[in-house]
């Protein structure tokens, strides 16, 4: 059996990478991600992990280093946040298109300007179309579990895709939580050694990611799309295997007190726990309110979302990022699109809040439910509001 340890979530992510026995860490510090790679540096320097630790000159270089190490057959890990994720943006497309199973922790942070180091999900939404599998964590235990499990998912020969593990900056990264750590033997039994089937070989030179004219580019992108869509079933297979091994089960969409709920909240990330407290309070007051938590952002869980919504009359989507000039928040837009084809679907109301690290309280979740009722009555459903804007 493992043990329960009170530890900062950033350090727990580093411990998960250590227990996965990674071969290469490409590291560049950026708030609020820095503690992850600092801890990895200590682990390698103290001889607790036999790995190459590459301190690079930028996040663009970090992901470029990951391309080479993963293509050479090394189990590869990195981490970044906010502006750093944007600096490596162009290289993200290369990693997914070349089928390189890199695992990257992303400490979600608001994007400039104005300069802000606090947590929202602007960076998460900015990279949604880069071809990476993207998993959103709610607490420290999930951050540890999904970091560890992502290596098994990414390296499955049926997948071979990079994975981002998203954790809210400061709300999770700098918080000390009790984490259940497995033993190394348990991890070794769950996570097989990495054997990359397309490994570069100096004795058999080849070109990867070469120039592709129009007569082949579309087919390459189609193959990439088919692969990531097909990965959803395989992701669930590995989550089920993780649950059987460690007792914690995960699903693309999590439900909380949705039985008989006429109104559902939908959240992404750590604010889901505050929403749970709000739901408990409203349920105790006799209000028929429940909660959905979206864990898998890419590939998007269309069928699972539709099933989870059930017969609810109103669905409230909370975004912590804004799609400027668009229909509101990115999650609201996608959820509305996912449910559009249903013959009977709920009224969908969107709120954008928590930007730049601003908190959202239990009372404010209650206010969202109340305000959504007013919007539905006045025919303003399928619209969104910026929540908590100060006059």
CATH superfamily of the largest domain: Thiamin diphosphate (ThDP)-binding fold, Pyr/PP domains
Overall tally of structural domains = 2
Annotation field: number of helices = 13
CA radius of gyration is 21 Å
Main β-sheet description:
7 strands, mixed
The helix/strand order is EHEHEHEHHEHEHEEHHEEHEEHEHEHE
What is the average per-residue confidence, as pLDDT, rounded to a whole number?
96
Q: Please state the second-level CATH architecture of the largest domain.
A: 3-Layer(aba) Sandwich
CATH class of the largest domain: Alpha Beta
Shape: globular
The total strand number stands at 15
Oligomer: single chain
Helices and strands, with pairings:
Elements: E1 3-8, H1 9-19, E2 24-27, H2 34-45, E3 52-55, H3 59-71, E4 76-80, H4 82-87, H5 89-97, E5 103-108, H6 122-126, E6 133-136, H7 140-155, E7 163-168, E8 176-181, H8 184-190, H9 214-246, E9 253-256, E10 263-267, H10 271-284, E11 289-294, E12 296-298, H11 302-309, E13 314-319, H12 330-340, E14 347-352, H13 362-377, E15 384-386
Parallel strand pairs: 2-3, 2-4, 4-5, 5-7, 6-7, 10-11, 10-13, 13-14, 14-15
Antiparallel strand pairs: 1-8, 6-12, 9-11
Helix pairs in contact: 1-2, 1-7, 3-5, 10-13
How would you explain this protein's 3D organization?
The structure is a single chain. The chain is an alpha/beta fold and 391 residues long. It folds into two domains: 3-246, 3-Layer(aba) Sandwich (Rossmann fold); 254-386, Rossmann fold (3-Layer(aba) Sandwich). The chain is built from 13 helices and 15 strands. It has helices at 9-19, 34-45, 59-71, 82-87, 89-97, 122-126, 140-155, 184-190, 214-246, 271-284, 302-309, 330-340, 362-377, and strands at residues 3-8, 24-27, 52-55, 76-80, 103-108, 133-136, 163-168, 176-181, 253-256, 263-267, 289-294, 296-298, 314-319, 347-352, 384-386. Helix 7 (140-155) links the parallel strand 6 (133-136) and strand 7. Helix 1 (9-19) crosses helix 2 (34-45), helix 1 packs parallel to helix 7 (140-155) and helix 10 (271-284) crosses helix 13 (362-377). The longest helix has 33 residues, at 214-246. It starts with a strand and ends in a 5-residue tail after the last strand.
């Amino acid at each position: 059996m493992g043990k329960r340890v009170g530890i900062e979530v950033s350090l727990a992510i580093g411990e998960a990478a250590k227990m996965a026995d990674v071969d290469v860490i490409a590291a560049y510090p950026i708030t609020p991600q820095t503690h992850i790679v600092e801890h990895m540096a200590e682990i390698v320097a103290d001889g607790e992990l036999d790995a190459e630790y590459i301190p690079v000159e930028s996040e663009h270089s970090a992901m470029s280093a990951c391309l080479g190490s993963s293509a050479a057959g090394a189990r590869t890990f990195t981490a970044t946040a906010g502006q750093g994720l944007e600096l490596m943006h162009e290289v993200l497309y290369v990693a997914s298109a070349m089928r390189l199973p890199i695992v990257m922790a992303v400490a979600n942070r608001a994007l400039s300007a104005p300069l802000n180091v606090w947590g929202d999900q602007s960076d998460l939404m900015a990279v949604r179309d880069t071809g990476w599998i993207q998993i959103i964590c709610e607490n420290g235990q999930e951050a540890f579990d999904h970091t560890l499990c992502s290596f098994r998912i990414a390296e499955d020969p049926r997948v071979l895709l990079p994975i981002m593990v998203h954790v809210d900056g400061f709300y999770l990264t700098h918080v000390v939580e009790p984490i259940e750590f497995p033993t190394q033997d348990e991890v070794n039994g769950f996570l097989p050694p990495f054997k990359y089937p397309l490994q570069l070989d100096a004795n058999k030179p080849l070109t990867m990611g070469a120039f592709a004219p129009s007569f082949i580019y579309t087919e390459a992108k189609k193959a990439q799309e088919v692969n990531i869509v097909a990965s959803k079933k395989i992701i669930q297979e590995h989550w089920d295997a993780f649950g059987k091994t460690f007792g914690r089960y995960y699903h693309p969409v999590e439900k909380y007190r949705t039985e008989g709920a006429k109104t559902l909240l939908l959240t992404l990330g750590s604010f889901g726990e505050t929403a749970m407290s709000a739901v408990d309070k409203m349920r105790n007051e006799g209000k028929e309110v429940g909660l959905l938590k979206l864990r898998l952002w890419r590939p998007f869980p269309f069928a699972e979302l539709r099933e989870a919504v059930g017969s609810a009359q109103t669905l409230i989507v909370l975004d912590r990022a804004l799609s400027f000039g668009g229909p509101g928040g990115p999650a609201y837009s996608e959820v509305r699109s996912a449910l559009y084809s249903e013959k009977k679907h709920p009224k969908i109301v969107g709120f954008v809040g928590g930007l730049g690290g601003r908190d959202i309280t239990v009372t404010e979740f209650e206010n969202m439910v109340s305000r959504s009722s007013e919007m539905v009555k006045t025919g303003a459903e399928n619209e969104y509001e910026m929540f908590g804007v100060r006059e």
